[in-house]
Specification:
Two copies of one chain form a homodimer. With 142 residues, chain A is α+β, with helices and mostly antiparallel strands. In chain A, 41% of the residues lie in helices and 23% in strands. Chain A is built from six helices and five strands. In chain A, the strands form two sheets. Chain A has a three-stranded mixed sheet with strand order 4-3-5. In chain A, strands 1-2 form a two-stranded antiparallel sheet. In chain A, helix 1 packs across helix 2. The structure holds a DNA duplex (30 and 30 nucleotides).
DNA sequence: ATTTAAATTTGTAATGATTACAATTTAATA
DNA sequence: TATTAAATTGTAATCATTACAAATTTAAAT
């Protein structure tokens, strides 16, 4: 058994654990989301996976992402209008989008403060935080 | 001079201050954004203002909002994909979107903590925070 | 006041991401 | 192997946004 197959088996098990039948397409899409850190959009995901699965349809990418989101193993990033991106890291973290190069960075946050948590009788399921500005690299190149 | 005209004059002055020529359309759109607290989308804004300006075009609403955003007197709210909303309150505050009724609430936040502010050489221009869940009203009605 | 130029508004068409849906293919079960 | 269900695919429809040119309004100049 090769190392590659071994990793795919891990992903298959992970998908099963969350009630998703691990088809080849689903494994490949999730694998890509896990290893990439660029928070890709549907088009980027499609263009990448279609190299491996030439018959892949963009509808499958949409369907697959929908089920991932529904099961809670992928998070949607909506920073810019008309630019939906996806993130396989569902742990609590913030996003920084560089207005110059467009890159999205992750950063750690801590939402433990009571004055943010206490919304007086509201039930909070998701917390999203994102900043916009200019990244280190772009500032350097000016 | 009526009270209504007086308020419109205030808005006209405000727009001028930010380098926007205060046309009737622009005044009405900004006035509506200022008084409403529901963070409306383009369609809602259009449907409301067209009652007063029957010749209004949706393109004008888009153009006007773009210039408001460019000048920094209106903020874009992108919580849901394909649901861009607008807010004339550009002061720092968070948004809570109820998954049940869809309503967006404002809440106060304080971003003074160093561990959130310090992104190590990154220049932060905008900070956005939003939560999702179920609001007080919807929880009560269950 | 009239003319000219610039800015704004308007309407229609184009774009592009997402969704709907039916047909095809694949996988699971008997 | 035959049957059924699930997943994938491709095409068409939808819907928000943008592009763009024509019409209108406003401002400036004469």
């Amino acid at each position: 058994m090769t190392l590659k197959e071994y990793k795919e088996q891990d992903i298959a098990d992970y998908l099963k654990k969350y009630g998703i039948k691990p088809s080849y397409q689903r494994i490949k899409i999730f694998e890509y989301l896990r290893k990439t850190k660029s928070h890709p959009n549907v088009d980027v995901i499609f263009k990448e996976i279609v190299k491996v699965i030439p018959t892949l349809s963009k509808t499958t990418v949409y369907n697959t992402l929908s089920s991932f989101i529904e099961k809670g193993i992928v998070a949607v990033i909506t920073i810019e209008e008309n630019e939906t991106r996806y993130d396989a890291d569902t742990s609590m973290h913030g996003h920084f989008k560089c207005k110059s190069c467009g890159k999205i960075y992750d950063f750690d946050i801590n939402f433990s403060r009571d004055d943010i948590d206490d919304l007086g009788g509201f039930e909070v399921d998701e917390k999203h935080l994102y900043f916009k500005g200019n990244c280190k690299n772009c500032l350097k190149n000016k």
